[in-house]
Each structure stands twice: as C-alpha cells, then as structure tokens.
Amino acid sequence: GGLTFTFDCSAQNHVTSKLSFTVFYVKLYTEIHKPFSFRYKDLHVYQLEHPTQVLEWTSGNSVCVAGYSQSKNEILELRLPLKLLADENKSLCAERDFKVSHGGFTDGPVRCLTHIPGTRCAVTNDGLSSDLQVWDLGGEESDVIRRTGSIKGKRSASERGSRIAARPSSAPQVLHGAQISDVQLTELASGETLYKLETDSADPLSSLQFVSDTVFLAGCCNGSVYVADTRTSAPPQLSHSPSSAESVIWWTDAAAGPHPSSRRVIRVSSSGQAVVSDLRNLGGAGCQAQLDVQTPGRCSQVKVSWAPTLDDCISVSGFSGVVQIYNTRLWGAEPQEARPLFEHRGHAVSSQQTDDSVPTFVTSHIWHPERPRTLLSAASDGSVHVWDWVDPNRQGGSPTP
Amino acid sequence: MPEIKVTPLGAGQDVGRSCILVSIGGKNIMLDCGMHMGYNDDRRFPDFSYITQNGRLTDFLDCLIISHFHLDHCGALPYMSEMVGYDGPIYMTHPTKAICPILLEDFRKITVDKKGETNFFTSQMIKDCMKKVIPLNLHQTVQVDDELEIKAYYAGHVLGAAMVHIKVGSESVVYTGDYNMTPDRHLGAAWIDKCRPDILISESTYATTIRDSKRCRERDFLKKVHESIERGGKVLIPVFALGRAQELCILLETFWERMNLKAPIYFSTGLTEKANHYYKLFITWTNQKIRKTFVQRNMFEFKHIKAFDRSYADNPGPMVVFATPGMLHAGQSLQIFKKWAGNEKNMVIMPGYCVQGTIGHKILNGQRKLEMEGRATLDVKLQVEYMSFSAHADAKGIMQLIRMAEPRNMLLVHGEAVKMEFLKGKIEQEFSIDCYMPANGETTTVTTNPSVPVDISLNLLKREMALGGPLPDPKKPRTMHGTLIMKENVSFMLVSSEQALKELGLNEHQLRFTCHVQLQDPHSDADTLHRIYTHLKSVLKGYTIQHLPDGTVIVESIVIKVSSSAEDSNTKVLLLSWSYQVKTWTLFLEGLPMQSKPGSSPNHLVIESLF
After folding, report:
1. Global pTM?
2. Peptide bond preceding A35: is omega within 30 degrees of 0, i.e. cis?
3. Where are the domains of chain A?
4. Which CATH fold topology does A26-390 show?
5. Closest CA of chain B from A45, distance in Å
6. Per-residue pLDDT for A257 more than 70?
7. Does A69 contact chain B (CB < 8 Å)?
C-alpha cells in the first residue's frame, strides 16, 4: 500500500489537531528499481470526463479522442502540451496541460476514428452498423467539430462495426468494412465505390490498414490475413490463421517501413500468442512468443502496434490496465515466454474507476510518429497518459537527464 | 424588462486583467480591479471611462469586490481608488486584505525602483486604499446597503480566494474569480451551494484545457531536485511566504524520507516570521466551514528542513534552499542567486509567474547574461526551471461548478469567442441554459425573470375556492379578478375589488355596452322576444337563458330587449347590453351568427345576415 504520515499540528494558541494522508504517487515512480531511477523521461496524466476507445493523430502535436457511451458523446481534438514537445527550451516551458482545440457532439458511440491525411476530415464508425460518419474537424475560425455527411456500409447491424483505413496519399478515400467480404474503397467527395474486395468469406475484421498507397492488409478476428491491391480486381492473398482454436480472437498490425524488407506483420491472439511474419511471406517462418499478459482470454479491445521508429519494438495493450513493450528481436522460431522490455502500469495503479468489480483496462494506445519513445494510452476509467519511457538497457546506474 | 448587465472592462481581446462591471437591480458593482502585467503604459489599467469620462467613481459604484490577491485581480486597486478616485466600500476576505498590500508594495517597488516609472501609485496610496477595505468572512451575508447583499464562498486556488454571491431583491449573480475544483495539499476545492443565481460569471482562460495531474507536476519537481542533488549541485527555490512554499516543503520532506537522502534542505528565516503571521490568519479563516483537506501544521516542525543562515550559502556540497522574495527581485533569494548562478551544476526552480522587470522574469525568458547594480554582469550558468503549480479550473471544473450552483445563465469572460463555441454548445446542451461570452468593453444584457411574492387576502382565496372546479394548477392558469395593492413601497397584496375600493375610498362604477340591431319581423314585440328566447334556448345549450316577466331575455349577463321602430311596426329594434367583462360573444339569430369583436364599440359590430 501507500505510506501513511501522521502529523501533530499545533501552533501557538490554536487547537491541536491530527491529520493523516496516504501518499499514492510514490508508487508511480519508485516501483521497481534499486538503485533509484526514473523510468520515464516524461509523464503526463490526464483525466477526461468520459473514457475513449480511440486515439488518432490529426497532426504531429494533436490527437482525437471520442466517447463510447450508448447515446450522445463528445469528439475532442487535443493539442499535446507544449512542455512535452519543446525539446530545446523544455525547462523554461511550464505548460503541461492538454488544450481542447476543437470539439463536437455525436449521436452514438465512437468505436473507430480515422483521420484523412492532408485534410481536416475524420471518419468514424459507431460499432453498431457498418455505416460511417464523416466529420470536419474545424479550422481557425471555429472550434466546433461538425458532421458533414455519411457513407453507407453494407451492414445495417453489425456486432463489431467497421474498421476504417485512410488512403495515405491522393484524394480523400477510405477503405472500410465490418467483415472481409464487405471491404470497399469509397471516395469521400462523391461517395463513389472505387474498389471492392472480391471474396466470399464472411469473417469479421479486427484490423484494416494500408501498407502502401494501394496495397492493404485486412486482419480477421479468426487470425487469417488478406493482402490485396486496390488497383486490381485480382483475388487477395490469403494467409491462414496461425491457430485453429475456435474461441481465440486475433489482432494484427503491419509495420509500414520504407523498405519492403522491413514490412513485417504481427498477429496477437486473445490467449497471448504472438506471431511475426514477413509481409511478402505471411505463411513462412517468422518468430513467435507467448506474451506475458495478465489475463489472457479476457480482453475485447486489444491493440498491437509496431513502433514507428524503433526497430523490432512492438507494443500491446487491452489485456489489463498495462501497456507492454516487447523487443521482437529476442524472439525465436519456437514460441517461448517473452518478458516485456517496458511496462506502463499507470492506468492500473492510479485507477479512477468507481466500480471495483470491473478492473480498469487500457482501451487504446498509439506511438508518436516521430518521437521514438513517446506514447499515448487511454483507459476505461477516462484516463489518458502521455509518456516517454526510458529504455532500461540503455540506462546506467544514474537516471538519464 | 428586468435585466442584469455585465461588462468586462478593458480593450480588445486581451486577457490577463480582471475587472468586470455588473448592473443589477439598480446597483453598480465592480468585480476585481486587476492590472495587466504585459503592458507598460495605460493599457495595463482597466478602462474606467466606460463608467464615467472624468471624475471620481464613488457616485457610480455601490461597491467594489476583490476576489484574491493575485495582481491581475487587484493590481490596479490603488490606482483606481486613489488616483482615479473611489471612496465607497471595498470588500475582500481577511487573508486577501492582509496579503494584498504586501504584493502591491512589492509590485510598486519593482515598477518604480527597477523600471523607473513615474506615473504609478505610491506606498501611501496603497495604505489609504486599504483603509477603505471591509473584510469578509466566508458564508456570511453582508448588507452593503438596504437592497444589496453579498456573500463570500471558498474558491480554493490561493489563500483567501473567494467566489462572491451578489443579490439585489430576487435577482442574483455569482462571480467566481479564479477557482479550483480539485483540492490541494494546503487548500480545499471550491464549493458553493445550489444558490441558483441568474448569472454565473466565470473566467474562461483555462476553460478549454485538460489539466495534467498534480502527481505528474510533483514528480517532475522531485526529479529535477533529485538530479541536481545527485550531481552535487545546489537548488534555489524562490517563494512567497505562504502557500506553495509549504506544499513544496511537505513534498520534499516526504521524498527525502522515502529515499533516505542526506543533503540539507533550508527555509530562510525571513519566511518564518511572515509565514507564522499569515498562518494565524489562515487558521481563523479556514476554521469557517472549509471543505475537505488542508494541512494544518506548525510551519517548521520538519525533520529534514532547517532554518537557513546566510553563511550556509557558501557551504560546499548539495543543498536545497527556499528563500523570499518569489521573483528574485531583491532580498535573500537574489543574494543566494548571485552566488550560485555561475555554476552549471546548480539549479533555480521558479514555481510561479514573475512580473516584468524582475530577474525572475528575465531568466524565464532565456536571458543568460544579467546586468546587475554597478554595471556588473552576471553570467547565468545554472539550470533554470519554470514549474507551474497554480491551480485553475479547467473545462471539467467549470461543468462541475455549474452543476453545483445551478445558474439560470452562464457568462464566460476572457476567452476568444471563436475558440469557445464548443464549450458554449456543451454548456447549453447539458444544462439547457444560455451561455454568453462578451468581449472586453462589450455589454451583455441578460433578461431575468424575477418572481415577485404577493400576498392574497383570505376572502379572495375563499371566494375563488367556492367557485369550485379543479384545484389551482401551475400548468393550467385560471383567470381571477382582484386588485393588486402595493403598501409602504415594499409588500404586495392581492385583494378583491370591493375591498380595494373600500380601502381606497372610491365608489364602484359599472360599465355596460349597448348596441342596436334591426330586424324585420311582423310579430308583436312580445312575440318577437319570445321567438328569440326559444331560438336561443335551442341553439345555446349549456348557457343560462332566462325570459323575465319585465320583457327582457337574459343570456348569462347579456340583456336583450325588443321594441318596435317608430316609423314601421314591422321593423324591430333589438337592444343588446353587456357588461365590460364579457369579452367576446356570438349571438345566433335566425341561424346566422352575429359576432362582437373584443373591446368593440357598437358601431363595429359585424353582422352577417340575409334577412
């Protein structure tokens, strides 16, 4: 537990009184190491009014979050604190707060939010059908995020809703679908369908992303992965699931590196199994591991992500209130237990949850696109953390400045 | 229409100075009188020309209320009261009254001595101004005059900060000043009851932020101190006597204990006396129903923190020193700074805002070479850290406060309207109230709906109840007749018309309207009347219709008589007469409607007929 201090208070003619308080924060930074060290270069902890399941960059220094309650919710665009971003004059900058630069209201939950690069436009899905809502994030003249339109999906009712991916360059287009046979590419301005994935399978999707301007990867919940090119109507490449276990759900992420050789795909299952393969050879031998996740099986919002600038690093969240970072270079061909390189336990330790029966779990996390070790993570209690972690292998005996 | 007017004084969109004028129920109140710290000319003062072009403000203001001792809320007070001229009451809490003059004097010294300004208030003016101050206790209603009353609520933020409830009759306004909704180590969170003011006025400077947690700020502070100590450096923390200093001491003490650190921590002696003095005031003030936690302790019973002696500054090895004044503009903190500035292992941590002209302000702007007295330059090699511990309400805090107070309208000052549309929408949606955002110099008029309490005479009440029908229902208003009398300029009474006439000694008069309608009918007068009677009885069911022996037909209170025209016995003339209370009626004759218009004279009767 925390430390308890009891103070005897008396001052001249006034009444003596005792006051005791418990110090929780000490846990946050003195958890593990001897000798004493600071595990974070930077750490910012925020409390949103309502929890978010989405974290999406809209620029190098702003993110979008949105609520997921049944009825009305808010979409917010938050600007990162100046102190975090000010590399040169960091010490002279006292500004540590998020700035709500734009905000808007939705009629339903937001389960997926994608920003269209090069625009002030975002596309959302409510997880109830496969229809998409289109938003204008606002500019200088107004701080209101407004709904500008919608895109009809194939399914009026869907258990998980659609995944959305924005085409990296060219005119605003979104790839979306709730299951693999629904995947289509829609042009935002006209609403025209430019491409449809030709397959009969009805597997629900857990991820959808572009790995180049025209090639995309669709990860199904059962672990199979499809790779296709929007320029052709040829059938997609299919890589089957690493496991045939029925009740296991899989999540996928592809590293979008500059070289084809660095384009790898990782798949993580709800039982904690992780499989890495090369994008050009998904079925081939890669490496695997059994992740050290607290409650395998009990998870619904797992997020797995390659670090944008750190080679071989991946991050995983959603199994509990912890975000874990692993170095896949240490993994071998045979699945072995892997220890995380770093764990961010902030959401579990300082949980603001009022209902103790459901423990706090991390709903989403993202890496900063340029700053090597900066991440954002959000949890079910409404907390949002921004953290810059210190690689314990690079650290010596004294804390890095 | 009854209305409340709110005008933030100032020019353009600049923030950083609070001074708001409120007109309510015929009273004019000024809320705060701040100085803009960014300007060096007259723009730093509020624009009083809005109130009057020249001359003193005493006749135009009923009172001035200061929310707390920060200079952007009270910095222009001596200028306003002694140079522009105001002799009316100035209200503030006890700690504000004690601390204000010290900060004003400090500020005056910096502005005049350091920056060489001439058109500024003097020390004597500060003293004279404070003589006009009437101190407030929390939750105590103060009658400014017969009609205007004010009450202070705890605001958190800094020692002595208050939110103010202003009431004239049944109209009221709450001004928040700066407040904080999350408790500190030494301050509680702001609190107010469900007072339901007509307007809640709040600063919106931080309204669109989401605050980083206190723990993270503290972690950062401890990390910086620890790093310096570890490399053998000295850490200087310039502080004001009371408030943040105690918080930071408690924090360091806890940390030192946990980490088993040995480096000494000192608290300069100048602080001790001042702090104890204010501490006494603090205790008196905070004994009045403060919510939640604050730390009551004897200032200097720390295990690891000792009193400072100035010779210690030359001791070798790491140490941490808390010293006044807070902006490094004079005194002990400046002396220590001069000694330690040349060593890059050392550090100075500025825990708050520094006024322009001070060393603190200069080093926070990145200046690394300082000009000291006697043309000597000081090379600033030590590390400079700016850390903000001040507590403001953010977007969530504003929503919390609105939930607590339940205002009928919301007014936000000091924000750019285009950047506040979302918050305005959020407030309007969640609470279904209007949210106003006036620019500086712009007046917002809010129409209020004050309820005026009226007594009703028992007779009248009984009579109404005797009429039967459903019980009084606010959703279904019923017309009643009575007379409203205002007695002795204060109380209202609703009485029956007869009673009113009696009290006023007046005679009752009755008004009746008449009109003539011509008909062609060969029958005798009596027969015609009888036919009309029978016809009406068949058509107007549910109405009281009587045929009286004196030759009249009465429908409710309308009287009908028939007589023959003098020229032609077949032309009958109907005389219709009704009292003024009958607004509209429709008379059906020969199956065709004849209708009066409300308030019409007989000449305007519209008759549709084809006889």
Report:
1. 0.79
2. yes
3. 26-390
4. Methylamine Dehydrogenase; Chain H (2.130.10)
5. 5
6. no
7. no
